[in-house]
Every structure is written in structure tokens, then in C-alpha cells.
Amino acid sequence: MQSLLNAIRSYIPLSTDDEEVVHQLFRKKTLSKGEHLLEAGNVCRYVAFIETGLVRYYATDDKEEKTNYFNKEGDFVCDYMSFLPQTASFVSIQALEDTILYVINQSDLQTFYRDVEHGERFGRLGIEYVFVQAINQIRSLYIDPPEIRYQKFIASYPDISQRIPQYYIASYVGVKPQSLSRIRNRMAGKH
């Protein structure tokens, strides 16, 4: 729980009373490797904080899964497009490792916003961060070639790239695994 408190403190100050509210509202949840926090078609019920572990977001079209995003320890996890309006999700969130989370449901999140002194500010700053990340990812998909997307992936996730299977990284970059191998070989040849 200390890492969750520290993550919240990176956005807002917390008093002792505020910390008690966090302890009351967040619940510990564990996922085994391969288990889902959310499956497409279901409603996202939680905002979660990853204490330890790693998850991926993915969507499935007629032919294949497409990895959209990764979150690791210290990150908040949620499909906000499902969570905020409480509608069916188009993405799944799956643990890539055994993962320990702290989760809060929508009702308790509203209590957090109300009862923590700067709770609403925390919510605003958190959503602003998610918005900027989403826009940057969409922009990159439209304008960056795969090699640049891979370089951005390595820059964004330098500490976890060895923990993610290469076929998920290839999917995230938007190429087949063989193409990712060629990109990696070209980059290795430049050094």
C-alpha cells in the first residue's frame, strides 16, 4: 500500500486522514500470469494500481489480437472509456506476470474525490495524463514508421522490454515478429 500512497503523493499531498481514506477504499487484488483484470465485452469496474507485475491492453479483431498498451508497477490501470460511462469495454487487460494490484470501484472513487482533501485534483491530473498518453500513441500510429514506434517503445519502457514476449512488442509496434527482428538487427548494427 505504501507504493500506492507514494503514487498518489506524486500528484497531491496526503494528510494522515487522507491516508486512512485510501486504506479504507482500495482493496488488494492478485492476478496470476495470463489472468484478466478485464475482458472485452465486460464493463470495467475498477481503477487499479499495480504494486508489482505487468499487464497489457489488447483488442481482438476478426484475425488477431492487437496489443495497445502496457502498464507496470507504479502505474494506474483502467479502461477509462468503459469505466467512466460504465459501458462494455472494447479492450482486455491481461496480466503478463503474477500481479498485485490495489483496486477501487467507481462509487468508492467518488468517495475518494469527496473525502480526500485534494482528491478531485488528483482525478483531474490523472485523467490529463491518460489523455496526453492516448493522443501521443494515436499520433504515433498514424505518422511514425514501425522503427520509430519501436524506438519510442524502448524509450518509454526501458525497464520492462525484457519482461514482455517479443510477439506482444511486435503487435504493439504494429508489425509481425519477423519484421521486429529485422528492426532490432538494423538498430543493433547502428551501434
Automatic annotation (TrEMBL):
It comes from the Bacteria. This is cAMP-binding domain of CRP or a regulatory subunit of cAMP-dependent protein kinases. Residues 20-112 form the Cyclic nucleotide-binding domain. The keyword Aminoacyl-tRNA synthetase does not apply. The keyword DNA-binding does not apply. Keywords: Kinase, Transferase. It comes from Mucilaginibacter mallensis. Pfam families: cNMP_binding. GO terms for molecular function: kinase activity.
